[in-house]
Write a structure and sequence with these properties.
Layout: H1 3-16, H2 23-31, H3 37-50, H4 60-77, H5 82-94
Helix pairs in contact: 3-4, 3-5, 4-5
């Protein structure tokens, strides 16, 4: 029996239950690399701003300026958190006023 398809099927099942392990954090802990806490906080804030609240759509007039402030801070303090930097910058670019 090939274990890789079985493992992938298990991961797929776990993901539908919201139980997929955070492999990025596990790898970082194993390597001894410490997360940049400020970038982690900024990325989490960007995600939280996009979650529906009280069944209301996202208010881009509120989120846009917050994204811009986060983007400026990330650009000024960029370290080795490439994944989170990309996430925050990508969100801020999508929120630019037209």
């Amino acid at each position: 029996m090939n274990t890789i398809p079985s493992f992938l099927a298990l991961i797929g099942l776990l993901s539908t239950q919201g139980a997929v392990p955070d492999f990025e954090s596990i790898a970082a802990k194993a390597s001894g690399v410490k997360d940049n806490q400020e970038l982690a906080r900024l990325a989490n804030e960007a995600q939280e701003d996009r979650k529906p609240k009280d069944a209301k759509p996202t208010d881009w007039q509120v989120v846009g300026p917050k994204d811009q402030a986060r983007r400026k801070r990330v650009i000024c303090t960029a370290q080795n958190d490439d994944q989170r930097i990309i996430q925050v910058v990508r969100h801020s670019l999508g929120a630019l006023p037209s």
